[in-house]
Amino acid sequence: MNSDSNPILALALTFAVMSLFAVGGASSAIPEMHRVAVDVRHWMSDRQFADVYAISQLSPGPNVLIVTLIGYSVAGVAGALVATLAMCVPTAVFALYVSRFLARSSHARWPAVIQAALVPLSIGLMSASGFVLAWTSDRTVAAVLVTASAAVLASLTRLNPGWMLLAGGGLGFAGLIG
Amino acid sequence: MPPDSPPAAVPAPDLSKSPPPSLIALFVAFAKMSLAGFGGVLVWARRGIVDQHRWMTAEESNETFALCHFLPGPNIVNLTFVFGSRFRGLLGGIAAFAGLVGPPAVIVTVLAALYQRYGEIDALRRILAGVSCAAIGLLFATVFRMMWPLIKRRDLVGLVIMIAIFVTIGLLRLPLPAVLVAAIPLSIAITFAMQRKGEA
Fold it and tell me: Mean pLDDT, to the nearest integer, of B85-110?
């Protein structure tokens, strides 16, 4: 049994490994999710990946649920379950051990240095996420304009982000994005 | 639910803490935060844990938030697990995790089933395309917000590392593990050296 013939095993391996490198959270791993799901494993098309991202943003709950959607599209409910657990459990257990270790030790300097070192990495990863997603879904001038206005509005105002998703959906429905 | 933004400083309203919650209370509280957490669960988690339930003081939660921010994996999931197990051991962690992820995962799975069935309908396709354009804009806004402190304090090293990651992952599309195995030690070494230099 190898991960090429068994999709459940492939999902488990893919997301368990990916979670260990998701510095800064699930949004940081989006380029890697796209690379594996679209380019390497051919689980979905560019367009489906963009749709899955949109659905994950429309749903309540943590960002990590995008892997639930990828898992479902590969292997149904079992795939959704396995992908979600594989992405969550290993790092959660790791976090628990680290927090217990830090509570007992006084190496207070190291976490601060590591944190300072990882911040630029996670910002770089998240900007790559934005770029990869924009590359797959912003195919028209109108689409780029919608993305740019949402970015500006969210940066400069305290408008609830839900309104911008709604406005984007409305513009799309009206056929203005193409 | 745009990417979790770093927690904002919230003044402690009261220093008194409540008794530790039961397993069911943990499950229900995290399920509520998660389902309300449209627009970033992290903010809601903080409100729930510190302000509403008073299971932790603002300081204790700051430490845990910071820890879960630099550990790998989905931050809010790590945080939930660590919080839950602080109160009720491993079972507490599992209860809180099940509350955070279970209910929204069911919702998302139903949406995925609907998408698989109706995803080819033209109107739905157009709506999703529009939503994803806007959602990407929100992601960029989060990136700018995180990047701003680096720009403001002219952190050249940080900015160079950031750009190097953007180029290797975003433009060259290299595998994430390969890039990070090289980048993490390098970044820690540089940061450590810079701090030593700053102290000297």
Answer: 94
